[in-house]
Structures are given as C-alpha cells and as structure tokens.
Amino acid sequence: MLRLSDLTLPLDHAPEELDAAVCARLGIELGALERVTVVRRGNDARRKNAIKLVYTLDVLVKDEAKVLAAHHGDQHVRPTPDTSYKFVTHAPEGFDGPRPVVIGAGPCGLLAALVLAQMGFRPIIVERGKAVRERTKDTWGLWRRSVLDTESNVQFGEGGAGTFSDGKLYSRIKDSRHLGRKVLTEFVKAGAPDDILTEAHPHIGTFRLVTMVMSMRETIEQLGGEYRFGTRVDDFEVEQGEDGERRITGLHLSNGEFLPATHVIMAVGHSARDTFEVLHGRGVHIEAKPFAIGVRIEHPQSWIDTARYGDNAGNKILGPAAYSIAHKASNGRTVYSFCMCPGGRVVAAASEPGRVVTNGMSQYSRAEFNANSGLVVDIDPDKDYPGDPLAGIAFQRKFEELAYKAGGENYKAPGQKLGDFLADRPSSEFGEVIPSYQPGVHLTELKQCLPDFVVDAIREALPVFGRQVPGYDHPDVVMTGVETRTSSRFGSRAARTCRASIRGGFTLRAKGRATPGASFRLRLTASAWPKRSRWNWRRHDGFHGGHRAIRCHRSRRRRGRAVLRGDGRTARQARAVARPCRSAGQEDPDFGRRALQLHQRSHRARPLPFGQSSLREIRAQPLYCGRFHRAGRCLWHRLARKDAGSTVLRRFGQADRGDVAGGMRQGRRCGELRRCAW
Fold first, then answer.
1. Would you call the peptide bond into 435 cis, given omega within 30 degrees of 0 as the criterion?
2. What is the largest CA-CA distance in the chain?
3. Which helix (H) or strand (E) holds 406?
4. Could you tell me which of 338, 28, 389, 396 has the C-alpha nearest to residue 166?
5. Potential cystine with 635: which of 313, 407, 628, 639 (Cβ 3.0-4.6 Å)?
6. Average pLDDT for residues 387-403, to the nearest whole number?
7. Confidence (pLDDT) at 163
8. E runs forming strands in 392-468
C-alpha cells in the first residue's frame, strides 16, 4: 500500500473526484486503483475565497512496485508506514511482582496506566481528585456558586485539566514512531468520534471526554488496574542501597497509608505545586522552564469565521474557524495565541483559594457564540525569577492573587475592553462582545494584575494581530485575566527521555516514552519550548520583490505560514508585486557546494537546516541571514569555520556578492544574529 500526501482538491469537490485525482497524481488508469483510504484531511485557507482540502491517503494499487519506481524521489509518494503500536515488553504469566504506581489520572497518567495494564503489570493509579462525575459537580460549584474545592476542580481529578478544555488532539511535535496513532485509536475504542482519526486538527470536547475517560477507567480495571481517588501523595520514602544509590521504596499518602512502590510514574500535571515542593526537598533535580502569562481574549465566532474563511464562513466541512498568531515585541518578548477554542467559553480554573485563573473550554459541536484564546507573553526564568527553580510558583501566585482582588475577591475575573486597554483607561460597560466567563467578569484595568512588560508587549501586538485577523483588535473585544497555567514551570535535562534526574543517584523512571499524543491538550507540549521556535532560522520561499526577499518564519506556532517582510506587507500583498525565483542558488553554480562544505565544517554536530541531505537540496536554499544591514537589505554571510558567521558572502541583488570588504564598509552591524528580523 502507498501513502500519498499533500493531495489538494477544491472545497466543494464531489466524492468521486477523489479517485480521479489520485489516478492523475500517480499517473495510473482508474482500473489500476483498488482502494483509497483517507488518513488525514485538512484545509488550506490561505486564499479564503479559494479554500482547498488537503488529503493524506493510503492507496492500494495493482502494481505498487511500478508506481513507486515511477515516483522515485517524490516525498509525497511513499510506502505506507507501519503505525501499529509495539509494546516494549509484557509481564510474565501470573505476574505477582511489585505493581507500578502512576501518580495522577490526567492524560499522561491515564495513557501510561492503560499501556501498563495492557502489558499485564496491573498498575495502581493514585489521584488526589475525585472520579470524573463527582469532579464535574464540584467544578460547576465554582462556576455557578463561587465555591472552590481545592482537591476537586478543573486542575485536579480524573481526566486532568484537559477534561475541561477544548479537547485538542494534535501536536506540532514530530511523531516519527506514530505513537499518537495509538492514543487516537484507544480514544475511539473508548467512545470518541471516529473522525478524530482523519481530521488534521481533531478534538473531542468536554462532555464526550467525560464518558470516554470513564470507559478507559473500566478497561484498566478489567485488566487488573486499581484506582485510588481522593488520595494525595504527601511524601516519598527513599532508601540508600549498598551501591550508594538512593532508590524509592514507597509513597506516603494523605490518608495515612504507606504504599510500597519501586516503580513510580510522575504524571502530576502543571498545578500540583505542593508535590513539586516535596520533590525538590527530596533532592529531585528540578530546573525552571519557560512558560507564559497573559489573558483570555474573546471575539464573536462569526467574526473569526469571516476573517479566516471569507464567503466560505459557516461551511460545515470547515467548521468554526481557528487562528494561531504570534508577534515579537520591541521589548524582546514574544506574544502569541494559546489554546484557541472556537465556539467555546472561558472558564474558572483556580485550584487554590484566594486566586483567579482562567482557561478555555468547548464542546464537540463548538456551537457557543464566542471564540476565545489565550493571549500570552513568554516568561524567562533567568530574567524574571532567577535563582530558585521554585520561584516560578511564587511568580504565578502573585498575579493570580492580584486578579482575585481586582475581580472583587469572589472568584469573578477582572476584565477590560480591548479599546480601553489600549487607551490605558478602566472599562465601565460591555459593548458588542459579552464575556462567557463564569461566575462573572468585573470590569476594571488589567494592568494591575499583569507584569508591566506583559502589558507593554500585548499593547504592541494587538494592532499587529488586527492586521492579520480583521476585527481582532475591535474596541469592544473583551479580555479576561489571568491566564497563568499554560505549561509546567519545571523541567529536567533528561525530560525528553522521560527519566527524571535525581541528585544523589535517586531516580524515578518511566518505562518507555511519553507519547506526543498523550494529552487532551497537546498544544501544551509545543508551548513548552518557546525559545526553540522563536530562534528558528528563516528560509527563502522562492519569491523576490525588488532587492528584498520574502521570508517564511519556520515557527511551530505559526506553522510556516506567516511571512515576515521588512516593510510589514502580508504574504498576499508581497506576492502580488513579487516575481518568482526559479532557484535561489542559480546565480552561482558553485554556491551549493561551498555552502554545504562550510556548514559541515562549522556545524559538524548539527543537522543540515530543514533536513537537507543532498547537494541538490541545499543548492535551492540561500545562506543564512548575516550580521550586517544597509538600507533595509540583508547582507548575507556564510558560516565560515574561522570567523563563525561574520564573513559577508554577498548582498542580495548586488553583482558584487564576493566583495566582502565592501559589504562590511557599507553595512552596519546587527546586535544579535538570532534576534535579527530585519
């Protein structure tokens, strides 16, 4: 079977046109096509009046070898990969050894427990909150009566924080082992809709997640697993062995019980602050990790649909529109949208008394009147709370407490109209947009519960976002504070291998790897590495306008669609006046070879940018942005072995591209290469 990707068809195409398009793409007769299975379907809405559907298909043909040979080198025509899940091991028959313990019944803990149960290890799941049905009642108690249960709320309980969210099931992290397929398959078995297997951006929604989580619990219990709800882990018992290495031997629970355990999976989520403090006190090596803080912003969903889809707004195939936007502010901070919930509502997500936290939620239908999204600014631990890795907790609590006071100290959230926020004046009444947050919004000034640099960055970004998404910066748009739980504040050097490093040799280890799909809100995993996406290289996208090139920012958040230009024009405007470039390296036949050699010398341990592995591929790419500028143009440099990026190879559009000294005389030095956005 063949995997055919990136096949585009019009939005309103007839079903039979799919087979014809496959045959035309593969160059075969219709009779040679036996079966077509849709693996994924997305849409390309860059031209909102000419939206296309983008398919990834599994195709069964009569002469597979001949078709593959005819398309040799085509990355969009390949053999279908094996997406079945491979268990790392299985418990021996009649296993009665130490049972593994999973702390936390959120997305990660739920999937870890399920896989352990399927391997025959009969895990014990310890969850501080209640079962999902009882937890739902407690959560509504906060939303309707302003009564907070600190152990059973949006953050704590079966299903984790993702249960009361948009239920997103996609990640921008590469999944070369197809582990996410295992997650989606298990969700469908538990009652999730079948379309999550094929939609490019699948989601489930809160009500369906509740029944799905209950079904997965029943499966785990049938396989020998055991749940202990309402039980918090208060401490860890650690002993030192003869070899000098400290090992975990058990857990001290909140009910006074001691639970023997030698294999523990920590899946406590981002809000178990007391557990992090205990781990740190026990010598666990914890590192502060960047996160973000900001507000929830609400627009009528119809505004977003029109801005993104134009005349196609309301199309059932497209559904409610979403957006993903980002801006690098002049103060060095990145402002970006987070956990966008089409047709949803803003909900109270506090887990500690005397503090206000917001979050976004939607049902499967996404039929609520408003769209909402987090509008957040990145926090740098080294800059904002250096030293103690636990200082991030105090940082968050400070602004959550300020939001509680600004909202009236009754769990109402502070809010402000966008126009008043930009004008630096308090809001007194709502306009066209009515907020959805419960138990209510108290109009005030948001600057009193946000850091100054966050306020400045958001004020700068809002007009920019208004140009990208028409209506985004409408004066009546409502902003509700505060959003602080974007991701965990802690990490470890060994986090990517799921082995938590403990000082003194004491380790907590999870067998296997946490899958990229093991979360109902997988965008959290992408937002956990803001610096990585912010500092990615930019590449030439094949168009020239005058002497300047349009460049596409290869950011995870922006998915490579947002185009940056020196004059601020959009991609569509720029392409209207641009001329296509046949080959970025065509002017210099030897350019690709020299660039490849220089890259290998300067970055021996670093892979080639964008995965190039051949001379032909790298010839089609330009050199990286240089450190010299003149009159708005970039002077390009090559990563020379001796001078690491300060040698100018050529100025774009100039004949004297080898005039290094001339370029340096006429240019001005850029302060820092990675922050250069020309």
1. no
2. 79
3. helix 391-406
4. 338
5. 628
6. 93
7. 87
8. 413-417, 441-443
Side-chain half-sphere of 318: how many Cα atoms within 13 Å? 26
DSSP 153: S
Secondary structure element (H or E) that encloses residue 251, with its range: strand 246-253
Pairing mode, strands 124-126 and 226-228: parallel
Q: Which helix (H) or strand (E) holds 315?
A: none
Closest CA to 341 of 323, 318, 314, 317: 323
Q: Decide which of 434 and 164 is more confident.
A: 434
Residue with the larger pLDDT of the pair 213 and 172: 213
Closest CA to 441 of 397, 472, 482: 482
Q: How confident is the model at residue 596 (pLDDT cuts 50, 70, 90)?
A: low
SS3 675: helix
Side by side, which strands form the sheet with 77-79?
33-44, 52-61, 2-10, 77-79
Q: What is the pTM of this model?
A: 0.73
**Cα angle value 154/155/161 (rounded, 5°):** 80
Contact 418, 479 (CB under 8 A): yes
Cβ proximity of 225 and 123 under 8 Å:
yes
Residue 207, Cα to own-chain centre: how many angstroms? 23
Most confident of 239-253, 430-444, 569-583: 430-444
* CA distance linking residue 660 with residue 645, whole number of Å: 12
Tokens of residue 355, six digits: 């503090």
User: pLDDT tens digit string along 294-323?
Assistant: 999 999 999 999 999 999 999 999 999 999
Instruction: Tell me the C-alpha distance between 535 and 624, whole Å.
Output: 13
Interstrand relation of 628-630 and 633-638 (parallel, antiparallel or unpaired): antiparallel
What's the CA dihedral at 561, 566, 567, 573 to 10 degrees?
A: -30
Count how many residues are written for the chain.
Answer: 678
Closest CA to 70 of 61, 58, 83, 81: 61
Tell me the pLDDT tens digit for each residue of 505-550. 233 333 333 333 333 322 222 222 233 333 232 233 333 333 333 3
Residue type, 68: L
Instruction: Read off the DSSP letter of residue 622.
Output: -
* Dihedral angle of Cα 560, 337, 181, 93, to the nearest 10 degrees: 130
- Partner residues linked to 374 by β-bridges: 296, 338
Residue holding tokens 């992090």? 276
Of 183, 227, 109, nearest to 498 by C-alpha is 109
**Any idea what DSSP says for residue 75?**
T
Query: Is the CB of residue 561 less than 8 Å from the CB of residue 551?
Result: no
Lowest pLDDT segment from 126-130, 320-324, 606-610: 606-610
- Report d(CA 501, CA 509) in Å as an integer: 9
Cis peptide before 482 (omega within 30 of 0): yes
List pLDDT tens digits, range 219-237.
Answer: 999 999 999 999 999 999 9
Q: Report the side by side order of strands in the sheet with 548-553.
A: 563-564, 548-553, 538-545, 579-580
The single-letter DSSP state of residue 446 is G
Q: Would you say residue 157 has pLDDT above 50?
A: yes
Residues 94-116: tens digit of each pLDDT: 888 899 999 999 999 999 999 99
* Residue 411, token pair as written in the block: 């769990």
Nearest alpha-carbon partner for 559 in 46, 197, 49: 46
Instruction: Provide the 8-state DSSP code for 196.
Output: G
Task: With CA atoms as reference, report the closest residue to 411 among 435, 434, 387, 438.
Answer: 438
Q: Which residues pair with 35 in a beta bridge?
A: 60
Interaxial angle between packed helices 206-222 and 107-118, expressed in degrees from 0 to 180 and rounded to the nearest 10: 30
